[in-house]
Amino acid sequence: MKRPSGFDRGAEGPESDAPDTQAPEWDTAGGDGVADHPDATAADSPARPGLFDRLRSRTAREAAAARAADQGGAESAAAGSGEGLGAAEDAVAPGGGSGDALAPGDGSGDALAPTVDLSAVRRARAEVEDGEIELVDDAPSARSAVTRWRAARQADPVRAAERRVREAGKQRKARFRRERQRFTLAARRRRRTWLIVISAVAALALFVVVGVFTPLMAVREVNIEGASAVNAEEVGAALARFEGVPLALVEDRDVHRALEPFPLIQRYAVERTPPHTMTVRIEERVPVVSLPSASGVGLYDAAGVLLGSAEAAPAGVPLGSGSLTDRSSDAFRSASRALRDMPAELRAQITSVTASSGQDVTFVLSSGVQVLWGDSDQTRRKSTVLTSMLAALADRPISQIDVSSSEAPVFQ
Fold first, then answer.
1. Final residue of a structural domain among 284, 303, 331
2. Half-sphere exposure of residue 408, counting CA atoms within 13 Å on the CB side?
3. CA–CA separation, 319 vs 330, rounded Å?
């Protein structure tokens, strides 16, 4: 039987003086731990290595032996032929005849030394030197089994490639995880933005629906502000039609139709205060000029709207004459606008007004002083100049003041 190390054992003969270089083959099937050798004893046997070391040593030797057997089949056959020829030649010694082979220089009839084929050993050694086979240290004290196992795994190119593949896979997964987290964060931000926008739109739509189509925000209270000459109760009764109507459905044109019968209202503003209040602010028309009529005098505002009548012109509403009696004339429009835009304190001092055109408006004060006003431009500046002159000339007898040119007033 050929040993796993590659040595061919010859015929058994007497013990040789040469030392036995063959490593002991341990019988892994037995449990006594004694080497399978005819001359071995329990005392002469070396210390038994560990199970893991023996498995690795046997695996390495079997691999080397199988590779040597595959590659050197032909050489082994040739070596066997050469061995037989050498034995035949040794059998015929110089000067001798047939019979047992004798060793050179030995006259006794000792047996021939066994022939050993070293070709497989040389090939295994060459493979070890080339790095194809890794020698395993069988000494248990040199390195631990785990250390040798790790070293063997690290030296294995297949395992190293597998480790590199695993590391590359881990790196790829980590990179993919980072990219996924980045895109997931951006997606969450987009979803949050869209959610906010959609929620705001939905809340607004819900508010509109509730305010328009439900009585939760209907008008229940109507407030009227700024009514002095106008009867506030009558105005409130005219606006009572909007009670129970949602605030969002109260239209300005409907309010205008409700307030149209009141000529003293010059302008108005509607304010809707949720949930149930509607406020109407009124600015009344102010009579600025009075014109003679059959029942006394009629009171008119700057737009020529009749606001009432009286027996005599009240204070602050001077009596008009001349072309002012025609409410569609330029004289009426210019005089009424000048009276409307001047301060109420100054208008209260005017008793009459006359004009033949829109450029020669003339006022008469209660003191008898005649004021040449001109047109209705720069009314506020002219009012300031006239008030200053009246205060400065209060102790002097004057009959006329011309403020038609506010930059150069004249008095006499």
1. 284
2. 0
3. 17
Contact 361, 338 (CB under 8 A): yes
Per DSSP, what are the bridge partners of residue 291? 298
**Are 239 and 267 contacting, i.e. CB atoms less than 8 angstroms apart?**
no
HEC profile of 230-261:
CCHHHHHHHCHHHCCCEHHHCCHHHHHHHHCC
- Residues forming a β-bridge with 308: 299
Q: What is the model's pLDDT at position 123?
A: 64
Question: What is the chain's percent helix, strand, coil content, to nearest 5?
Answer: 45, 15, 40
Q: Which domain holds residue 269?
A: 216-284
What confidence score (pLDDT) does residue 38 get? 40
Strand pairing report for 289-293 and 410-411: unpaired
Q: Please report whether residue 253 resides in a domain.
A: yes
pLDDT value, residue 101: 38
How many structural domains comprise the chain? 2
Is residue 138 within 8 Å of 64, Cβ to Cβ? Answer: no
Residue 381 and residue 358: Cα distance in Å, rounded?
Answer: 18
296 and 351 within one domain: yes
CATH number at residue 309: 3.40.50.10960
> Cβ distance 202 to 230 under 8 Å?
no
Instruction: State whether 235 and 327 are in the same domain.
Output: no
Whole-Å CA distances, 386 to 319, 337, 351: 20, 17, 16
Q: Show Cβ contacts of residue 83 under 8 Å, excluding neighbours closer than 6 positions.
A: 115
Tokens of 72: 């050197």
What pLDDT score was predicted for residue 353?
93
DSSP 275-298: TTEEEEEEEE----EEEEETTEEE
Provide CB contacts within 8 A for 348, sequence distance 6+: 315, 316
352 and 248 in a common domain:
no
Instruction: Give alpha helix (H) positions in 319-362.
Output: 330-341, 344-347
Q: Are 298 and 275 part of one and the same domain? A: no
The per-residue pLDDT for 105 is: 41
Contact yes or no for 355/331 (Cβ under 8 A): yes
Sheet strands side by side (includes 289-293): 306-310, 296-300, 289-293, 319-322, 350-355, 361-365, 370-374, 400-402, 410-411
Are residues 224 and 276 part of one domain? Answer: yes
Other C-beta atoms closer than 10 Å to the C-beta of 348 total 14
pTM of the model: 0.46
pLDDT attached to residue 188: 82
Taking 70 as the pLDDT cut, the residues of the chain under it are 1-56, 66, 69-143, 152-155
